[in-house]
């Protein structure tokens, strides 16, 4: 059969030589015709096998429940596999077509071998991408940096492929090439420095569970504030709250400091920590009339009654001088408001009652005394969290005047002008005022 094929391929050359045409020209024309025939056959086989394989894969994936074969189709695995049959045609026909031209035969053999290497790498890449996409859809791998490992394996595949291609072109052994490559390892390390650092960082990020896909991180150095959408070999991709994207070098997650909000996301509540600045000169002891007034406030009525009884017993026991409020123990409007704010938080349906909750004084400042509200909201989603925080402080700010307290607010330009005009009007004598009137 092999001899029959060879005879068939040389049919045209023998025919032309029989007609008196020069042998070299006849064999050259015979080669061109053979190339054309092989190309047509290659194209037809490629077209038929690709269509048959794609149709067969599509029918197979429609019948199976697993999604792995669906990802095979999406990664072009059937298309790459369909090239194997035309490739077999080339392997068989190339030695026959270029039998009389050894140099051309050598060149085409190298091209066929390079084609085999590239096709092998592409098939491996397709399988790798299929496996990656299939794993990413499973919950247990959802937050793992699979892309990083995939990219490393792809670099390995392509590196091996290029080594074999280079060996094929230069006709040097793979071992000899690797020895030469070892001598140039310093240059290779310099070229692939970021890749190597990214790979090591990816392993550390995964092993130490520093960042997962879906984590909310804040990285001020790079202006990142949002959810991690992708972790790969070189970068971590963050979708910010304004829907912009920030890419961070993976190794910087190891070398620099950033904030990961995963603990908050996994906890039962999100922290509210904000202060009200009270003017110090509005703080005072409360009188009996004030006590009677505050006892009508439902949230703190029980507290005031109990507290006042305790204070009265203490003062009577020590027989303090009641002429001045500084003697003995007395409640202050700030202390009562502080307990009112705490009672309000305890009654709020959106505040987590199982987590830390307090209303405390901080060190006095030039803006007044900070009264810090510290609690946790049940709702962790940003928009709802901000709404709950605003509701709490809306109420407390509106309640402050009922306790004869004032919030600090820096004076504006209009406030200063009004004060200056008021001083000028008071200091102006009646005679001067008459003189100031227009004639």
Automatic annotation (TrEMBL):
Report the subcellular localization: Membrane
Which PANTHER family is this protein grouped with? MINICONDUCTANCE MECHANOSENSITIVE CHANNEL YBDG
From what organism does this protein derive? Salinimicrobium flavum
User: What are the protein's UniProt keywords?
Assistant: Membrane, Transmembrane, Transmembrane helix
Q: Give the residue range of the signal peptide.
A: none
Which ranges does the record mark as transmembrane?
A: 25-45, 80-98, 110-128, 149-167, 173-192
Q: Chief subcellular site?
A: membrane
Q: Which domain of life is it from?
A: Bacteria
Q: Protein name, please? A: Mechanosensitive ion channel family protein
The answer to whether the entry has keyword Coiled coil is no
Q: Is Transmembrane tagged as a keyword?
A: yes
- Provide the Mechanosensitive ion channel MscS domain boundaries: 194-262
Q: Which SUPFAM superfamilies match?
A: Sm-like ribonucleoproteins
